[in-house]
Structure formats: structure tokens, C-alpha cells
Amino acid sequence: MRADRIFGVVMVILALGYILSAMSIQTSFLSDPVGPRVFPYMVAGVVLICSLVMILRPDPEVDWPVGGMLLQMALALAVLFGYAMLIRPLGFVIPTVIAAGILSWQINPRPVPAALAGLGLGIGLFVLFKFILGLGLQGLPRALMG
After folding, report:
1. Which ranges form a coiled coil (predicted)?
2. d(CA 132, CA 33)
């Protein structure tokens, strides 16, 4: 219980710092319709809510992962790191489809539904961010876009 509360307090502090750093983002007259601050505010808001839940309702007993679960977590961490490294050169859609597909496969190890979930998330999130929120995302690698 104490570990959850300590982690929750640390995450509240980090979220508040994230909000403060997002407040310093300069906006220009050529910015996206949503603006560059909205997404960091949304992320910080979710982190704050989750952190407060951890502080107010901590898990009564801690079950630390062992064996195969540690390998699964290491794989998920490697996938997310690779995603962060590949999103700029490959655009948004391809790395998102791959990462979402692998993470979906970890949740339910059936290849076809995992691949479809990855494809749906990659394309759906691109449509959401690019066309609905109006963010300036590069969908595919520049070489393919001409």
C-alpha cells in the first residue's frame, strides 16, 4: 500500500511539472487548431487522475511479477522504445501498426486479431490526430509521400 501511495505522489509531482513545462510552449499564429499545449495537458490530466486513484485507493497487497511476466514487460518496453525511435523516420502509421499489433498479441496471443487491432489502431489514431484534431502528423515515410 505504501509503495502505491509513494508512486502516486511522485507521479502527481511529475504531472504538475509536465503541466508547467507545457505552459511554456510558445504558440505562433501558424499553429495547429488545437494548439501545441492541449495534448500535454490531456496526458498530464490522465496521469493526475490515475495518480490520485493510486493515492486514495492503493492496492492492498503487492504482487511483483516473476519469470515470464518480466520477459513480457521487457518486450513491451523494447517495443515502446523502438516505437519512439522509428516514428520520425517511418511516419506515424507504420510504427503504430507494428507496436499496437505486438502489444495486442501480448494481451491476447492470437495473431490475426492482434494484427487487425494493430492495423485498426494505427489507421484510426492517425485519422483522429490528423483529421479530427488537426495535428500535423506525417503518416508515412517522406520517401513514400514524394
Report:
1. none
2. 10
Same domain, 140 and 90: yes
- This prediction has a pTM of 0.63
CA–CA separation, 128 and 139 (whole Å): 12
Which is nearest to 123 in space by CA: 145, 100, 144, 102? 100
What's the rounded Cα separation, in Å, for the pair 134 and 73?
33
Claim to verify: residue 44 and residue 114 sit in the same structural domain: no
- Tens digit of pLDDT for each residue in 88-108? 999 999 999 999 999 999 999
Closest Cα to residue 126, out of 77, 91, 86? 91
Instruction: Give strand ranges (E) for the chain.
Output: none
For the chain, how many structural domains are there in total? 2
What DSSP string runs through 109-137? --HHHHHHHHHHHHHHHHHIIIIIS----
Banded model confidence at residue 43, pLDDT cuts 50, 70, 90: very high
- Residue 36 · residue 43 · CB < 8 Å: no
Q: Are residues 4 and 44 in the same domain?
A: yes
For the chain, state the CA radius of gyration: 18
